Amino acid sequence: MGKLTLLSLLTASVAVIPMFAETVHVSTPKSSLILDAVKGEPLKFVYYGSALGDNDIKNITSTGGNTFNAYPVYGLWPEKEAAMSAVHADGNMTLDMAVADVKTMKEANGAEVTTVTMTDKVYPFYIDVNYRTYPGSDVIETWTVTSHDEKKPVKLTRFMSGYLPIRRSDVHVSQLYGSWANEGKVEEAPLPHNLKVIKNKDGARNSHTSHAEVMMSLDGKAQEQTGRVIGAALCYGGNYKLMFDTDDSDYHHFFAGINEENSSYNLKKGEKFETPALALTYSEEGLGGASRNFHKWGRDYRLANGDKLRKVLLNSWEGVYFDINEAGMTQMMKDIADMGGELFVMDDGWFGVKYPRNNDSTSLGDWTVDTTKLPHGIKGLCNTADGLGIKFGIWIEPEMTNSKSELYEKHPEYIVKAPNRDAVEGRGGTQLVLDLANPKVQDLVFNVVDTLMTNYPEIDYIKWDSNAPIMNHGSQYQTADNQSHLYIDYHKGLEKTLQRIREKYPDLTIQACASGGGRANWGILPYFDEFWVSDNTDALQRIYMQWGTSYFFPAIAMASHISASPNHQTNRIVPLKYRTDVAMSGRLGMEIQPKNMTDEEKEQTRKAIADYKKIRPIVQQGDIYRLLSPYDHKGAASLMYVSPDKKDAVYYWWKTEQFVNQQLPRVTMAGLDPDKLYTVTELNRVDNEPLPYEGKTFTGRFLMSNGLEMPLSHNVDWNKRNDYASRVLMLHSN
């Protein structure tokens, strides 16, 4: 159980406990963070790594390592990078912070927070450095709260969430990068000299081109199952900056927080400026161990409804796009119900009266049903879904409007726009971003959801989209001297709105979609149940994108859909078996027009959905083990999920290249109980004959030492042969 202690001091049951000793020990079951908190001196970082006992804690400062300020500030010795910088009202640009107090507090969910309060030695300026741990979790969250009692506002010009010195050796950093329809790709490289920066300035979404999460492998090139790894994830949905400063010392200096560019913040007297949490995890089981730590923490404490299994759904987008009509929606609902699905989601194109939403150039903000398309309205569709035994969901994009909309005609002052400038318009040549810093806009966005749910309480699922960045810098709501607050206050307003929605509708399933995978981050996910990994549904490319995304996010949060062939983004022709096997490694869904499927394909999908329901608890709640990376270019990719009790597992294998006489590696498994006996059953089988090990039993030890051979092609009739092969195996022990 994660706990916070001060040396051997046990945490008492009272809410707040002052700490008077100098050493602060923030601990999780397998890790320790040691700080030196001497009153009147700067807070010092001492150690972060594997869990320490009292003896090692007592002697840790004698090991010869350097100590650095745990939250370095700018001004004295300004040649070093700093986590915070500020300009006092008198123009002074320096900070000189010293420890004033240390307290620990227990929260309602069992988490414990240690807060080190630092005060400036001259000015009434205060920084609380916070550390939170959760029961049973190997993740530590750190963030700061800044305030002051100076007579006039203090300008904050940098405000990182956290800092971590990392001893130089052969440190490699794994990060995610990409673009629209190509998100979540993995790049790994050794840390360079000088400065490495990973940042985002989109304003509204932040995970298309890069991610606010990294893995730091301390023993050279990253390994999946072995080696020391520190994982870091900034829990923020807005502009961020991750920096590695490698100076002339023996250390890399890692900073993570809100991107301060064009975002200086004028902090008023008595106001509190709270940074987003930086989540840190330490593992000696390689990248996989760090991923499993993030996944468990996320499901248990960060992801909305992380303990509830997700439904199998059909989304209408790639099936009909904007061509929404009652007959078509009814047909799609009947098809997904017949194939064993549990939910139908009607995507874009269902709304707009004065401006019907027939394409992406009109109507956002006018969330009124178009009864020419849906004569019986949403209520009629909900009734149809209920009669078919499935749930109903709907698409919205409530943070946006179009210049061709009734909302914009009535309230042009609601949009993000620079003073004395024309509005910059995006998607469809008309899309505009609403200014969520404005409380009236926050009410408007809340009411979009609240009105839908009040009128149609049967709605089970909302797909929440965000298809534009902040396209110009300016707020019609903010005062002239606070225009630099735009990016930060947008996300404060969004979070306030989402909190209101979740307080009223805690069980509603909400997907974060943002031009595909633009909102895959732990800052957004406390209010969302899942995210759309990418607008690219091509199964082969999804292997790469979902592989990288799994570094930080669990399968339960990754929407993965069976789509049409040829694929709508890549035009690749991929057999249904392969598309299904890839989609089943995340939250299974469909993004297809079922009436275009053959009866044989529908039957194959019906069996696949039934099989997925058998393994759903393992996939969505189990531990991931990535076995063979597609980025290693060995012709195949493989991973598996293992139930927490190690009783059951699901093994995935996909061929990623096709050559004559190719030799592919035999993949050994991981995460199993070596002494358990596992019976092998293939799911989604299309072969005329079962695999030779079908129904056979093997020890976990054998499977982890030797694995099983995967045939390079499927034993099917000649007319069904193709250049793809994939396997899904279920392992069950009695």
Largest sheet: 11 strands, antiparallel
Average pLDDT confidence is 96
Q: Oligomer, anyone?
A: single chain
Q: What integer value in Å does the Rg equal?
A: 27 Å
Counted up, domains total 3
CATH topology of the largest domain: Beta-galactosidase, Chain A, domain 5
Give the class-level CATH name of the largest domain. Answer: Mainly Beta
Fraction of residues in β-strands: 25-35%
The end-to-end span amounts to 29 Å
Low-confidence stretches: 1-20
Counting helices, strands and paired strands, the structural category is: alpha+beta
The tally of beta strands, per DSSP, is 38
What is the CATH architecture descriptor of the largest domain? Distorted Sandwich
Query: Helicity range of the residues?
Result: 10-25%
Descriptors for this entry?
734 residues, alpha+beta, Beta-galactosidase, Chain A, domain 5, TIM Barrel, Immunoglobulin-like, 11-stranded antiparallel β-sheet, 8-stranded parallel beta barrel, 19% helix, disordered N terminus
